[in-house]
Amino acid sequence: MIELEQIKQLEKRTEDNPEGLAFYSAQCCWWTHRPTDLGRTMIPPQIPCCPHCGSVLYQADAEKFIQSAEDNPAHYGPHGLKAFAAAHHINGQKCKRSWTDYKVED
Ligand SMILES: [Zn+2]
């Protein structure tokens, strides 16, 4: 599993994401900072969505989004920021509705 510290090292401002945005789901815990990870809704207009459950997304500055998580680790349940990191697309877990459902390595 890729830890939050490693996710923080990844470049957020890229050619396909010049504003350095994070994309996070409205209805599950899934998030990413890579536009290539986004799903598309089946029904036109095909808007970006969670690639697992099709939830619509919010977006925010990726570094601020991660910082706000670090400022409030209790929000992510007993696994804290490990659950937050596990929910990033890069870790490949199917999205969950609850932070406590993520598998993390302790
Ligand atoms: Zn989802």
Order of helices and strands: HEEEEEHH
**Bound small molecules, which ones?**
zinc ion
Radius of gyration: 13 Å
Mean pLDDT: 96
| Oligomer designation | single chain
Please mark out the parts with pLDDT under 50 across 5 or more consecutive residues, or reply none: none
Q: How far apart are the termini? A: 11 Å
Outline type: globular
Q: In which range does the helix fraction lie? A: 10-25%
The biggest sheet, with number of strands, parallel, antiparallel or mixed sense and barrel status, is: 3 strands, antiparallel
Total number of domains: 1
Strand order of the largest sheet: 2-1-5
Structural class: alpha+beta
Total of DSSP H or I helical runs spanning 4+ residues = 3
Beta content: 15-25%
Total count of strands: 5
Question: What key attributes describe this structure?
Answer:
3 helices, 106 residues, binds zinc ion, alpha+beta
Task: List the SSEs and their pairings.
Elements: H1 4-9, E1 21-25, E2 31-32, E3 39-40, E4 48-49, E5 57-61, H2 62-71, H3 81-86
Antiparallel strand pairs: 1-2, 1-5, 3-4
The protein binds zinc ion (ZN).
